[in-house]
Hints:
The chain has 13 helices and ten strands. The protein is of the alpha/beta class and 318 residues long. Helix 5 (162-175) packs antiparallel against helix 6 (177-186), helix 8 packs across helix 9 and helix 11 crosses helix 12.
Amino acid sequence: MSPFTTVAAYVPPGVGMLAVGIVTEVFGPHGAALPGFDFALCADRPGPVPTDCGVPLSIAHGLDGLARADLLIVLPGAGFRTPPAPAVLDALRTAHRRGSVVAAHCVGTFALAAAGLLDGLRATTHWRFAELLADRHPEVTVEPDALYIDERSIVTGAGAAAGFDLCLHLLRREYGAAMANAVARDMVLPSHREGGQAQYLAAPVPQDGEDERLAEVLGWAREHLHEPLPVTELARRAMMSKRSFARRFTAATGTTPHAWLRSLRLSRAEELLETTDLPVEEIAHRVGYASAAVLREQFVRRRGVPPRSYRRAFISTP
């Protein structure tokens, strides 16, 4: 699968303006330092489209714009409970048969399910509507806690701001961690969030300084990945017991300290493999692993390929 260069977003009636902003921010221009995409917003027909904030959005392209896209993203709209028009479903199926990557997030996932593109696959949507999706489409395995689900040619994401997670994942998958990180920095966002939707369902407003201390410790850990970083040291810096730190960490991030650090180390290793010619042994030490063998074991288990194969793939990518 070649990296996508042409991106089209389908804008349904009642589209969420947050979703429009997300795809435009990620795939719109970011300056000469980053490669640009041929990006277009498409609707059932060119012209004004109503939005969730009451201000119509002028769309220049109709469904024919979807036919040219290497990546097609279905945005969420207010009428998701009613299947899209047959012409829209045909456009989605045609794009998928042609080899395009077809993605959706939030309730945009309902359109992919209506088109039959999710049959036999895993998918996610906004947690609030996951049960409805599962009831309507029992042939789809709905995972309500996931921020995004990657089924290669079909990718689905959770609701609202998780659209950023979906889009940055697609960039990371096709263009590598370095580009995804650069775009995320441009938008002042984390390039990857650990955990799932569950961490956002009932998060209380902090009543003390513990969350602020936790944030400071996480920032410090990012700058010291070359060190062992045992949980006892992180807890000490947060001025908490190990047990309290682990509990607070999981409540705030949706994952464990060990899993968070592992993801951070591997993401940094990816970036170094893509952007430097450092030996794998040196990269292992820079991201906190005792040897290249330990990095290789974790890389194969979590990324599916050894570090050297990953590096070769990105060196050979045009």
